[in-house]
Amino acid sequence: MIATTPATIAYTNPGSEHPDNERFISQCEEWFGQEVIRLGSARFTDTWDVWEKRRFIASPLGAPCTAELKKRVRQDFQRHDDLQVFGYTVEEKFRAERFREQNPEVNLITPLIDAGLTKSDCLAMIDRAGIPLPAMYALGYQNNNCIGCPKGGIGYWNKIRIDFPDTFLRMSLLERDIDASVLRANGESLFLDELDPDRGNHADEPSFECSLLCSVAEEHMEGEKIAKPAIKTTIERFEERVDKSGDCWLWTGFVNTDGYGQFGASGKKVYAHQFSYELYIGKIPEGKKLIHSCRIMNCVRPKHLEAVIWKKTTRRGETGKASGAQMLAKTHCPQDHPYNEENTYRYPNGRRECRICRAEHQRFHRAARRAMIIESADINGMA
Fold it and tell me: Which residues of the chain have pLDDT under 70?
């Protein structure tokens, strides 16, 4: 729908971002083959103008600069029948949901979330397109916000002190002028002129790497003329093989000898639970492995998947084994079924297992085995 609908790309300029952003936008225009319309406030020149005139910097509910320089500008520009496309990534699902709740009149589209793309994916795609990231990323900031964003924490402001000393000084003077601070510590206001230069911890540079979904999205970008986009097909194929009727989301497709679901995506054989984690949560942290808190290997429910370091996985085991004393102390299984005589299966080594969960697991495992031939063809790109 988005690819065949005339689109207007608009950028709301708050006036206090790094000047290198103009270079970045110009290069994106070349990449898109389309002009980016620059929008700005008719009332305020930049964030400082808002803070100084309103004599208000920010609160736990938000900052006036966002409302005046972004929201109001967008509202003045939009039409009532617009389909508005926002660049929220999967980490920002809650922001998209909150926006829809607070702006029911807006017909919002979030293609990056729909495609399962993380912020790291998007940065990697830009990098591979040969476009240098905005200067704020090159300086080591995690976001391309305005220079001196009131949403920043202690580490952020100590980095601003080093990289943009004039901005740090100006904000510290403004804080005293209006008797309000951008930082809080232990429930108390923390003014910048009292901030210990050694406090806080800010990453030196952004970390980004393209995931499986990133590669699929790039395939879609290269083949927009295909009637059915590859990214949609991949996610649809995944969802069609997931049974969400119970507490566990059980994979009904191909299951390997270890009990893990697998399917073909972007020309590769992938684990279903790993695909689900990246789709709903984000990239699996480097050096970590996913384990199932529910101990059901063909479960793909994100909240049942935990990313842990390898030593922790080895210590606990993929089945989530606890010590004998800990197991005996439990009265219910992870799905809240009772460990009573009727519902407890005992292995020769003394380990217990819930009969209800065991039967459910075996039932789906057998069904998956029956579909093995079909799914094996799918993995090899034949389906």
Answer: 1-5, 60-61, 202-233, 265-268, 310-328, 334-335, 349, 361-383
CA 109 to chain centre: 16
What type of residue is 217?
A: A
Structure tokens at 86: 């926002």
DSSP 284: P
What stretch(es) of the chain map to CATH 3.40.50? 9-194
> Where do runs of H (alpha helix) occur along the chain?
20-32, 47-54, 64-66, 72-77, 93-102, 111-114, 119-128, 135-138, 154-163, 165-178, 212-222, 230-240, 272-280, 310-316, 324-329, 355-370, 372-379
Per CATH, domain 9-194 is 3.30.70: no
Residue type (1 letter), 204: D
Token code pair at residue 27: 């290069």
Closest CA to 136 of 126, 151, 147, 152: 147
How many Cβ atoms from other residues are within 10 Å of residue 326's Cβ?
9
Residue 213 CB burial class (10 angstroms; 0-12, 13-18, ≥19):
buried
3-state secondary structure of 216: helix
Residue type at 365 in one-letter notation? H
Q: What is the model's pLDDT at position 327?
A: 58
> What separation in angstroms does the CA of 351 have from each of 199, 323, 324, 358?
49, 10, 8, 13
Give the pairing type, strands 83-85 and 36-39: unpaired
**Secondary structure (3-state) at 80:** coil
Angle at 75 between CA 74 and CA 81, to 5 degrees: 105
Length of the chain: 383
| Residue 265: closest CA among 319, 212, 203 | 212
Residue whose structure tokens are 């005339």: 6
